[in-house]
Each structure stands twice: as C-alpha cells, then as structure tokens.
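Quick one, tokens below:
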C-alpha cells in the first residue's frame, strides 16, 4: 500500500515514520525545501525520543522517502493531510485552516479518475472541516463528483510529545470518521498491524471524529486546571494536593492521570485546542462557560506563579538571581510553544530579577525568542545554580529528579527552592534544612 503524508511537521513526520515501520511505502511531502533536505540526510528537525532511529532505519530500507513535490500524491492510495492548524491571527481562538485547504487544493490537481483515493485529515480540525474538504475537491474537480472511489475521512492524532512513537504503535484507541463502507474497510486494512496489540479502532461519522479530538484535549485541560485550583485551596488551608490527587485518582471514574499540579498547561495542543473548541461553540451560537473558564484560569495561573516567586524573594526581587531548571512545557521535548516559562520568565525580568536557565533540550532556537532575550543559559546544572537566590524547578526532566541536593544546597546563595512539579520530598528537604516550596502544600516554614 502506498501512502502520502502531506506535512513534515511533528504529526506528519511521526505518522509517516510509524506507518513506514509497518512496511508501507510512505512518502512525506512538505514545501519547506530546507526541512526536506535535512530529512533526506537523516537530520531530524524536532526532539522526539526514538524518532531519529525510526527515520534512519526506514529511509535506508526505502520504505520512507521525502519530497517537496505535491505531485507525488498521485501514486498513493491513502493521502494524509498533516499540516499545521495554528490559532487564527484574528485573536478569536479559531483554528486557522488555510494550510489544510491549501493542501486540499494542491492535492486535487493530482487526483486521477482511474484510481481510488482516501483523503484523511490527521491535522486537528474543527467540526465541519471534512465536509468542507470534500466540497473544495468537488468544486475544483467536478469530474469526480460521481466517482464513488474518492472519499474523505477523519483520523485525528492522539500523540503526546515525548512518547509519540509509543502512542502511535500502542494507542489507547484509533478514531476513524468515515462516510462510506469502502473508506472504513481501507482504514481497517491500514491499521491491521495494530490488531496484534488489540488496539480499539472506533468508526464514527466525520463530525464525531473531529469533535472527539477537541473534546479529549479539553477534558484533560479541565483536569489539570481543576487540580491546580485544588492546589490553591490546599496551600491556604494546610491540605496536601498530592494526597488529594491520589485519593481522587483511585476512583476509577476519575483516574490518576493529569491530576498533577503545576504552572499551567502548555504545548502545541491544549491551549490551541481549548481556544478552538470555545470558538466552535461561539460559531454555532451555543453558550459555553466551562471551556472559557479553563482558558482564563490557565492564563492567570502563569501570572500567579510569577507572583509566588516575587513573594518568596521579598522584600525585593530586583537584582535577585533566579535559576530556572527546564523551560519546555514538558520533559522529553524541545517544544516551547505556549510553555508557562514564556510568561513567567519575562514577568520576572520585568520585575528586575536576573534570570539564569538550564534545559536538557536547549538549542539555538531558544535564544532567538524575545521572551528569553535577557536569560543567561548554562550547560551545567550546578553552574546555573551557583550563587542563586532562588532555584525554580519548572519542567520535571529526569535529570533534575536525581540532583545531589547537598551539592545544590552548597551552590545556592540562599537555600530556597520552588518546585513547580513537586518532584522532591518535603521530608528530605526538612532534613537538609532547605526552604522548600512546592505546589499545593504549605512549606516547612509556614504555620498552619
């Protein structure tokens, strides 16, 4: 089976690489010549564990290839659209679908009447997009209107950055929105390699599949925001949010995942998708307060963390040295999109603090961001910490979990640690006489 994946970004590259691992002949297409040239040389433009090995292996075996030519779709039976759907520049939160529709227009030029095709949206798109794709194709290619061998389907991705390969190969579920029996059979055949792992494959209509993706991400965002609100209550009353989360998570109806307090959610999905979902409610003139409340709370959360830092360094934060460990929105990725650090760090600098930073995924792109233009970067963690007035754990990289706390204590000018991910043990900190502050509990220095 020949497959074309249009878009060599995060989703497109992971999708193409994993499908080629199944033994399919996959071509990944992107109009970014520099990116494609890099991929042809096995230079991976994104940080994702296991992806580089997968690309190298399947490129060598000729199952995976890369091209800038959209005409390459003509030989494929299945064409995935996996381009970006960023938030609209209008600022209304609506997903910008211009890349999806441009890809659709380009693909339509190379659809031949004598071969059946299944065009699948892998990109995260609002409800109704699949129908619009079908309309665009028919408007540009009226000769295909009565051809029953052309179908549009929705197959949303559920890939977590840092574990995307595992998520693709061992998914919780595969969601397929289809409009015909033939499209369903084609998708069954495509995902047959997952049968051995007994991955549930769910077939729905187009609209339901599109909504499932947004609803899933929004629900997880709600869980994160909820436990962060409980953390605020615990800090005021003397409770411990980790115990609260454990007590809640043992209820099978709730589950323990995403009940981890922190500085707020970030990344390429949750912020963008909650805004897009809220926009869909507005577009369809349906009142929604829950999703909007989550969006607002998450934005305020980042400011509240900056204020928490300011309070720890009272009476003056000005000229105080603050070391931030981890700036990405989560570990095992170099993705900075919507990371809380992009709000917290500029706020600290605005208040006059001197900010140092370390991140295991640091690359040249980090220093190009205006939010980090006054940040001093370090390759060594202890060097970054040396003579700091405050150490802040922002991202829970494993490298930080195993820090020698005695060395950390000696390196700090003032032995104050703010752990935004609760990776350390409060009792250990008491023994070391470190002023330890986390999320959702009172520090040892605070009286109940």
């Amino acid at each position: 089976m020949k497959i074309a994946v249009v878009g060599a970004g995060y989703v497109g590259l992971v999708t193409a690489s994993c499908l080629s691992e199944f033994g399919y002949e996959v071509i990944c297409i992107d109009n970014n010549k520099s990116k494609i040239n890099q991929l042809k040389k096995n230079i991976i433009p994104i940080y994702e564990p296991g992806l580089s090995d997968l690309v190298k292996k399947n490129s060598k075996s000729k199952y995976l290839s890369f091209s800038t030519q959209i005409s390459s779709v003509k030989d494929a039976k299945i064409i995935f659209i996996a381009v970006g759907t960023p938030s609209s520049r209008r600022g209304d939160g609506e997903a910008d679908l211009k890349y999806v529709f441009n890809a659709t227009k380009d693909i339509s030029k190379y659809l031949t009447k004598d071969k059946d095709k299944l065009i699948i949206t892998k990109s995260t798109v609002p409800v109704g997009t699949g129908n619009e794709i079908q309309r665009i194709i028919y408007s540009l290619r009226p000769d295909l209107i009565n051809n029953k061998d052309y179908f549009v389907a929705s197959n949303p991705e559920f890939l977590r950055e840092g574990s995307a390969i595992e998520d693709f190969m061992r998914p919780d579920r595969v969601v397929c929105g289809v409009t015909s029996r033939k499209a369903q059979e084609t998708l069954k055949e495509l995902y047959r390699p997952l049968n051995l792992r007994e991955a549930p494959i769910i077939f729905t209509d187009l609209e339901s599949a599109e909504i499932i993706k947004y609803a899933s991400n929004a629900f997880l965002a709600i869980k994160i925001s909820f436990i962060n609100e409980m953390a605020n209550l615990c800090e005021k009353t003397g409770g411990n949010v980790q115990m609260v989360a454990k007590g809640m998570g043992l209820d099978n109806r709730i589950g323990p995942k995403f009940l981890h307090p922190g500085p707020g959610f970030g990344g390429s999905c949750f912020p963008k998708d909650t805004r897009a979902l809220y926009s869909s409610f507005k577009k369809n003139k349906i009142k929604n307060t829950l999703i909007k409340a989550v969006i607002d709370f998450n934005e305020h959360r980042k400011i509240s963390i900056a204020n928490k830092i300011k309070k720890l360094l009272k009476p003056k934060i000005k000229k105080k040295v603050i070391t931030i460990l981890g700036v990405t929105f989560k570990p095992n990725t170099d993705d900075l999109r919507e990371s809380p650090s992009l709000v917290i760090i500029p706020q600290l600098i605005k208040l006059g603090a001197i900010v140092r930073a370390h991140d295991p995924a640091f690359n040249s792109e980090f220093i190009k961001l205006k939010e980090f233009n006054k940040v001093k970067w370090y390759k060594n963690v202890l060097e970054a910490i040396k003579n700091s007035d405050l150490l802040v754990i922002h991202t829970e990289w494993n490298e930080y979990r195993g820090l020698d706390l005695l060395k950390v204590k000696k390196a700090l000018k003032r032995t104050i640690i703010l752990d935004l991910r609760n990776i350390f043990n409060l009792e250990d900190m008491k023994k070391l006489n470190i002023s330890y502050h986390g999320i959702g509990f009172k520090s040892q220095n605070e009286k109940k």
